Amino acid sequence: MMLESKSTKRSKLGRFALPAALAALAGLVVGCRALAAPWLLWGAEPTRTVPAEYPYLAGKKVCVFVWAEMDTLFVYPHVQLEVAEHITYAMQGKVPGASFIPNRQVQALQRREPNWDRADPAVLGKRFGAERVLMIELTQYGTREPDSPHLYRGRMSANVKVYDTGYPKAAPAYKTVVETVYPPNSVGQWGSSENSIRLATMQLFAEELAGKFYDRKVKVR
Predict the structure, then answer these.
(1) E strands, the chain, in order
(2) Prediction pTM value
(3) What is the pLDDT of residues 61-93, one digit of tens each?
């Protein structure tokens, strides 16, 4: 009987070892795919829930007031209504059971009574039958880079306060500051119009503000 040489044995072992290694590697790949299956099949990304900072607009009738400086109103005469409409849209259906006084009714009062901003917000809201007043005091509103006015970039910031109309002359039940820059990481792309930048900035601002009042899911980074 002929004995196999050492080189022949190594050759046979190599032929068996390679398929075994490939099978093991395939098993690892299958295992990884199994773990990632929910993402691969559904495209879902991990999220976490961010609780509302002030959840007490739920089920309430809300009146939105927007205050802006005269310089801002001179350039953007409809900014109060525009911002209020974006905020209302961002909150409707997300703040459970909340309803909103029509913003055109609020603007009509602001036009009719130039000194409306000196009145007690709770008293103003009561005139509309509202239970809460959402006061937006715009401290910055523009579409151009401060140091490069030929470049478009939206910037909005505001003091945000909530008043309970059941407690006239009381301090705000909740207050915060919301600041938004759009685009967040650079100036607007070449060819972007001022109106498109302004619209996107208000949308982003309204979404960030609305998120203060309902539990929401955000992506885990």
Answers:
(1) 47-50, 61-67, 99-100, 132-145, 148-164, 174-182, 216-219
(2) 0.76
(3) 999 999 999 999 999 999 999 999 999 999 999
